[in-house]
Structures are given as structure tokens and as C-alpha cells.
Amino acid sequence: YKLFWNGQKTAENGVGIFVREPLAQEVLDIKNINSRLMWIKLRIEKQTMIIFSAYALQIGESEEMENDFWAAFSDTISTIPKSETILIGGDLNGHVG
């Protein structure tokens, strides 16, 4: 496996995506949005897939930080062409919907 990782060295936040080594050769692009969001673009046969890793804020963080996270998440997803498949994984800390 190969790890694609984005985060802070302070052991706070950080996201990553493990890809099996043969598929790691098919990674077309990597986007590190911030220490809580990243994606990789992967070619699987004839299909292009975007795999997100997300780590939402815990309860107790400021509303501004929470809004910034969800705005970055939404803005990033809205830029992905509808022809590409999106998979979202990570810890959304109960924020679903």
C-alpha cells in the first residue's frame, strides 16, 4: 500500500488515503485542500474516480471554523465533473445530511 497524507506535524487533524500499490500507479492527481480535507483522482479501467478523505470538526469548535470546513468541502465537491465518481470516507463526527 501507498499512503497519501495531508496534515499537521503536531498530531492534530490530518487525513490520508491508503491505495494498494498496483493502483497507486493509476493516481492522476492529488489535492490537499487543508489539514482536514484531501482527495486523490484515480483511474480504474476506463473510469475516473475521486476519493475524498474528510475529518470534520468536533463539537465545541467555533461556528466559524465549522462553517469554513463545510464551505471548503462543498466548494470542492461542486468543482468535480458529474462524469467522475466520488467516494467520501473519513470521520464526519456525526454531521451527516
If you had to describe this structure to a student in words, what would you say it looks like?
With 97 residues, this protein is of the alpha+beta class. The protein has one domain (2-91): Deoxyribonuclease I, Chain A. The protein is built from two helices and six strands; from the N terminus they run E-E-H-E-E-E-H-E. The protein is globular and about 45 Å long. It comes from Helobdella robusta (Californian leech). InterPro entries: Endo/exonu/phosph_ase_sf. This is Endonuclease/exonuclease/phosphatase domain-containing protein.
Brief overview:
By secondary structure, this protein is of the alpha+beta class. It has helices at residues 21-24, 63-78; strands spanning 2-6, 15-19, 27-34, 37-44, 47-55, 85-91.
Query: Which sequence of strands runs across the widest sheet?
Result: 3-4-5-6
Biggest sheet: strands, sense, closure? 4 strands, mixed
Shape: globular
- Assign the CATH architecture: 4-Layer Sandwich
The share of residues in helices is 10-25%
What is the gyration radius calculated from CA atoms? Answer: 14 Å
Organism: Helobdella robusta
Protein name: Endonuclease/exonuclease/phosphatase domain-containing protein
InterPro entries: Endo/exonu/phosph_ase_sf
